Amino acid sequence: MINQPKSLCVFCGSRNGNDPEHALEAKRLAQHMAERDIEFVYGGGSIGIMGILAQEVLDRGGRVTGIIPEFLQKFEVGHNHLTELIITDSMHERKRTMFERSDGFIVMPGGLGTMDETFEILTWKQLRLHNKPVIVLDCKDYWQPFQALVEATIDGGFAHEAVRDLYQVVKTADEVFEALKSIPIASEEVFTSHL
Predict the structure, then answer these.
(1) For the CA atoms of 112, 133, 169, 98, what is the dihedral angle to 10 degrees?
(2) Which CATH number is 56's domain given?
(3) CA–CA separation, 88 vs 113, rounded Å?
(4) Domain for residue 1, yes or no?
(5) What DSSP designation does 186 have?
(6) Ordered alpha helix ranges (H), 42-88
(7) CA-to-CA distance for 50 and 47, rounded, in angstroms?
(8) Is 76 within the bounds of a domain?
(9) Which residue in 46, 74, 104, 170 has the most C-beta neighbors within 10 A?
């Protein structure tokens, strides 16, 4: 249970996507974070949903920490006006640093990179390397295929049904902070059933 996190990492797209509701939901989430004085930790970009979130938190007087690999910063996609910008040597170091700097994780719509970050943080939780909350913000049903894939792993005998408790799904930014109050603890079976 985490009633008031000090920092939250948001995994999200470096593109805006086709539906403008994703950007609007990002702004709503940013507003909630700034109002609650929660530090926004993210991949450091100035573009896409991540850029919208970062700028909105900053515009509302919030704290934003970006973490970006050096090779992406060279492409000038990094946001240069953050509270703190950490430049890493690799994508792996970026993800590790985002993990270390965050009390929990929110997943918004995004592409392959967002999926990579989400699966890795869920795998670490399954392996009991952490018990931080992971909330999937399923704006406009974007993450329904993800949920179907998780169910397929259970139905196919490749995952224990307790993997459902590794994350929570909400539909709006307004629901995120209520969900943080009732995060289930991952059961031992989610790990030991694989051994």
Answers:
(1) -20
(2) 3.40.50.450
(3) 16
(4) no
(5) P
(6) 48-59, 70-74
(7) 6
(8) yes
(9) 104
Token digits of residue 42: 């993210």
Bridge-based pairing state of the strands 134-137 and 168-170: parallel
Q: What is the token pair recorded at 1?
A: 């249970």
Predicted TM-score of the model (pTM): 0.93
The pLDDT tens digits of the residues spanning 101-116 come to 999 999 999 999 999 9
Query: Considering the domain boundaries, does residue 2 fall inside one?
Result: no
Instruction: Reduce the DSSP state of residue 102 to 3 states and report it.
Output: coil
**Which of 10, 72, 15 lies closest to 42 in space, CA to CA?**
10
User: 31: how many CB neighbours lie within 10 A of its CB?
Assistant: 17
140 and 171 Cβ atoms separated by less than 8 Å: no
pLDDT tens digits, 142-168? 999 999 999 999 999 999 999 999 999
Beta-sheet strands, E only, within the chain: 7-11, 39-42, 64-69, 84-88, 105-107, 134-137, 168-170
Number of domains in the chain: 1
| Structure-token match 């507003």, residue found | 31
